[in-house]
From TrEMBL:
SUBUNIT field: Associates with MYD88 and IRAK2 to form a ternary complex called the Myddosome.
This protein's UniProt keywords: ATP-binding, Cytoplasm, Immunity, Innate immunity, Kinase, Magnesium, Nucleotide-binding, Serine/threonine-protein kinase, Transferase
Biological process, per Gene Ontology: innate immune response; signal transduction
Cofactor(s) required, per the database record: Mg(2+)
Family, similarity comment: Belongs to the protein kinase superfamily. TKL Ser/Thr protein kinase family. Pelle subfamily.
InterPro entries tied to this protein: DEATH-like_dom_sf (IPR011029), IRAK4 (IPR017428), IRAK4_Death (IPR037970), Kinase-like_dom_sf (IPR011009), LRR_Rcpt-Like_S/T_Kinase (IPR051824), Prot_kinase_dom (IPR000719), Protein_kinase_ATP_BS (IPR017441)
Protein name: Interleukin-1 receptor-associated kinase 4
Species of provenance: Sinocyclocheilus anshuiensis
């Protein structure tokens, strides 16, 4: 994207640039503020509310409103400079840096907000990659010295050193890669149970357990570029996750503690979830005891609450699965990775991304496999999670017939398999009438036709009702 200048016509932007912009501006409707600021030849707003609704409606066809808007505006003589001016006025700095990674954010003024972009501490000449990354963040996201620096435990190889952790106004820490190296004992890839720091690996990178001095545990996700993803794509994902995490906060969403982006290493630091993932918990990994029916009711209602919060904030997760539902020490479920799925640039064997299709096949709704993005696809995936909660079975098992858990629903519906035989034999404290209710919710979530599926609010109300039936419901 180095050949893009302020004079480049918007219509000549490459598809990859448009995609990167839409990944940043589609969430939380950031594109709308841009659209309402675009002027026609005589200075009048180019887009009426009706136009804006038309752009909005393309989401239902799985398209990006940002792209639609830019295609339309691009039919005029508008330039990247015009777009950058508007983005700066709205402090959409990550989007600015997608267009003009080096100089725009260092020298331009922040416009109406009055915030000076010099606060970005841009150092493009000396350290381009870090400067670019910093420029991707809003001014309030940029490193500020803390009044009392925290001193790192020294590691044996490097000797004692005072760390440079600092917090932003949102309370995020910025770490250097070196500090994270110390916190994860040199990225010790031995599993935690063997004394190392490895928690697991997924489609976006490897997750390590880290320890901040003072004893707070964190999970550090080191994002991996694969062959098919550039560092630039990864930075887009990274900045998107940060921007989404800063605006979406809920007790049933995993919180972000901080990030690090110096050099080639992009890392996200999350609160540590000692209970691991629901997937591991249902499999009784490491000899853990099976979850009781009460815990399962509580977890399903909590996860639905987190998902409802995302949907109410116009955010579709796109990778709802038991591996992305993490548990704290009290088994409170928290949804993770809601910022990574939109812009994923790489994939594991279970994650599909063809064009803009993102997700995990064993959970994907028919329309999601065709690339359509709708909250109802999250509801479908949640239906698979409910089947896992009921049965304790993995979502896919190559040695099972049928391999996909979602297909076992057909067997139950055809009375080839009884619900009693389907439910987890290790589970204590269940009652048939309640199990039937949860199965009924799962079954409705798994309707082929998305319009026949319940909304997440309807799902939540059923699950809460089920959960509150237990007088002692605390775990
Ligand atoms: N905040 C966390 N606290 C504790 N463990 C975590 C945390 N985040 C992730 N993990 C562990 O790391 C594993 C890998 O997580 P990761 O998100 O990379 O992969 P995934 O969820 O299996 O797949 P995907 O990349 O599609 O999200 C998880 O299964 C979980 O056990
Ligand atoms: Mg995950």
């Amino acid at each position: 994207m180095c050949d893009v200048t302020r004079d480049t016509p918007v219509r000549k932007l490459r598809f990859s640039a448009l995609r990167a912009l839409s990944d940043l501006l589609d969430p939380q409707h950031a594109w709308r503020s841009v659209a309402t600021d675009i002027r026609g030849a005589s200075g009048e707003p180019r887009y009426s509310q009706q136009h804006i609704r038309r752009f909005e409606a393309v989401v239902l066809q799985g398209k990006s409103p940002t792209m639609e808007m830019l295609f339309d505006w691009g039919t005029t003589d508008c330039t990247v400079g015009d777009l950058v001016e508007i983005l700066l006025r709205h402090q959409l700095l990550a989007a600015v840096s997608v267009l003009l990674p080096d100089h725009s954010t260092c020298h331009a003024s922040a416009g109406s907000s009055g915030a000076s972009l010099s606060t970005l501490q841009c150092e493009a000449a000396e350290r381009p990659s870090e400067a670019c990354l910093q420029a991707c963040m809003r001014p309030e996201m940029i490193t500020k010295p803390v009044s009392r620096p925290v001193v790192m435990e020294p590691d044996s190889s490097s000797g004692p050193e005072e760390n440079t952790w600092s917090t932003t106004e949102e309370g995020f820490y910025t770490f250097t890669h070196r500090e994270l190296t110390v916190m994860t004992s040199g990225w010790d890839e031995r599993p935690v149970k063997h004394g190392g720091c490895l928690l697991g690996a997924g489609g976006f990178g490897v997750v390590f357990r880290g320890s901040m001095c003072g004893g707070t545990d964190v999970a550090v996700k080191k994002l991996n570029p694969l062959d098919d993803s550039s560092l630039e794509d990864l930075k887009t994902q990274f900045n998107q996750e940060i921007q989404i995490l800063r605006s979406l906060k809920h007790e049933n969403l995993v919180s972000m503690v901080g990030f690090s982006g110096d050099g080639q290493h992009l890392c996200l630091v999350y609160e540590f979830m000692p209970g691991g993932s629901l997937l591991e918990r249902l499999a009784c990994a490491d000899g853990a005891s099976a979850l009781s029916w009460l815990s399962r009711c509580c977890i399903s209602a909590g996860a639905a609450r987190g998902l409802q919060y995302l949907h109410h904030n116009n955010h579709i997760h796109r990778d709802v699965k038991s591996g992305n539902i993490l548990l704290d020490e009290d088994f409170v479920p928290k949804i993770s990775d809601f910022g990574l799925t939109r812009a994923s640039a790489n994939h594991s064997c279970s994650t599909v991304m063809t064009g803009r299709i993102v997700g995990t096949t064993a959970y994907m709704a028919p329309e999601a496999l065709r690339g359509e993005i709708t909250p109802k696809s999250d509801v479908f995936s949640f239906g698979v999670v409910l089947l896992e909660i009921l049965s304790g079975l993995p979502p896919v098992d190559e040695s099972r017939d049928p391999k996909l858990l979602m297909e076992m629903k057909d067997e139950i519906d055809d009375e080839e398999l009884s619900l009693e035989d389907f439910i987890d034999g290790k589970m204590q404290g269940w009652r048939m009438e309640e199990v039937e209710r949860m199965y009924d919710v799962a079954s409705r979530c798994l309707c082929e036709k998305k319009n026949k599926r319940p909304t997440i609010t309807e799902v939540l109300s059923e699950l809460e009702d089920l959960h509150h039936k237990h007088p002692q419901s605390s775990r």
